[in-house]
Amino acid sequence: MSKVISIKKQLISLTFPIFIETLLVMLLGFMDILMLSKVSDNAVAAVGLANQILLLVNMVFMLGVLGATVVCSQYIGARNDHAFIQTTGVALVYNFLIGIFFGLIFIFFTPQIMLLLDVKSELAPKTGIYFEIVGGLSVLTCLNLTLSAILRSCNLAHYPMFVSIVVNITNIIGNYSLIFGKFGLPELGVQGAAISTVCSRLVACMLLFYALKKQKIRTSIFKALFPFPLDKLQQIFKIGMPAAGEMVSYTLSQTLIVYFVNKLGNEVLAARTYLVNTIMFIFLFALALGQGSAIMVGQLIGRKKQEAALKIGRLSLKIAITVSFTLSFILALIAPWLMPLMTENQTIISLCLSILWIDILLEIGRAINILGGRMLGAAGNPEYPFIVGVIFMWSIATLGSYIFGIWLGYGLIGMWVCFLLDECIRGIFIWKHWSSKKWANRKLITY
Questions:
Q1: 22-27 long-range contacts, Cβ below 8 Å, gap at least 24?
Q2: Which end of the chain is more exposed for a tag (fewer CB within 10 A), N or C?
Q3: Closest Cα partner for 143 from 82, 204, 85, 54?
């Protein structure tokens, strides 16, 4: 009994700061949307469209981030500090180069991207400027994701949490000043939100790097890269490619769905943006619990304690389902008072209220997918959630969205039902695989 209590305490102590950090990161985007809603629904739609593409790029970054998290966790569990430092250096260099590459694409090819997305003329200027500023400095997002993940992998999750508090305060002040033209600054609207966002990310990057150097890595990270530890890059790719591949597939699927939604008109596109930025506060607990559980699973497997890892999974599943159901039910209940705070458009409000009731079951499936997928990745078996994800998210969520949303005319509600089916069916397959313990004999690092 004492061991169960100890595991619960460890899980809570790791998950809580990740939850607060994730909440604050999501609040960062939500504040952009909330403040821009005072400008116009078109401004919200433009930023929502831009963020969907930027999210796709972030998923590419996750190749290095997810791989580094798992490899670092296992080396921490095995108490191999030198290999941990090498992995950290490889992840930072790789993600820095990837961030620069995508930044250049957004700086020079934004018009072509908007043409490909068939962005409406009234949204194009706002979407374009947001792409060029936030997308052009994608390297900041990339480094922040990497540094936060490495700190969490060595049980220092409270540092990214504190940094997120600072960043949110910076972003709120920046948004207020630049969106609405306060304190003698120009009124820039969407452009102001973009500038505020990148300035906040720059502050976060500097603080996270300082925390990593001060608390965990006192020696030079880059000296550990000579000669270059190619085996660490291979380990990162072994985990990161299928894990990030699942996320890229999901985001590509959602990007195509946004293309379908765009065909339904600006009101529906704005409704989706409001929904996404509201619902994210429901599944952020599952995200935090998934990350905390995955770090514990990785460390336990580094110590060759597979049975304890399985127990962590079962405990986490019960917590995730209970919290996700409760929060999504509460959101659906309070939505009639919440949604009018974001928009006065009754068509948008009515659509959002209907979908939030459908979303209750969807969030249960999503919680299982997040939890199971993260833990399978930490156990060295990210291929399974990737394969299951690609099959169902494209056959049910994407194709179903077109059939029911566009072809049969059920619109965004029909699409959301397809999302529900996709998440729940995937959740059943992924959790059965985790419970089967087929991952237990996987080997990632050398001891």
A1: 22/284, 22/287, 22/288, 22/291, 23/281, 23/284, 24/161, 24/164, 24/165, 24/167, 24/168, 25/164, 26/280, 26/281, 26/284, 27/168
A2: N
A3: 204
Report whether 369 contacts 283 (CB < 8 A): no
Q: Are 433 and 376 in contact (CB under 8 A)?
A: yes
Whole-prediction pTM? 0.71
Exposure b/e, 349-371, CB count within 10 A at least 16 = b: bebbeebbeebbbbbbbbbbbbb
pLDDT digits (tens, 9 = 90+) for 310-362: 888 888 888 889 999 999 999 999 989 988 887 888 888 999 999 999 999 99
**ω before 227 within 30° of 0 (cis)?**
yes
